[in-house]
Amino acid sequence: MTFWLCVASMVLTMIVGFAWGGWVTGGTAQKMAETMTDDAIVTRLAPICVIQFNRDPGKEKKLTELKGTDSWQRDGYIEKQGWATMPGAEKPDRNVAEACAKLLLAKM
Length: 108
Known about the structure:
Layout: H1 2-19, H2 26-54, H3 59-68, H4 74-81, H5 94-107
Helix pairs in contact: 2-5, 4-5
């Protein structure tokens, strides 16, 4: 009888731990770490995109065009301008472009 009570208490502890205690599996922890890393990288690179925008001689006109672009197309507009292509990279990063658009429009 004591054995089954111990087993039941272990199972109950695991159910409560995973459901409400914040426990996660190794795979879930890995995915969470990757997401946090990607978010941190985008946060650090978006201001570089803004700096590249500020170096553009036609920035005022392009900022007006960006504002007039649909929200779901703004990252594409920034990618086409080349602002989201980081030094040393071959192609732009869509997540950086999206964050850059938010920063640029917040300046307006």
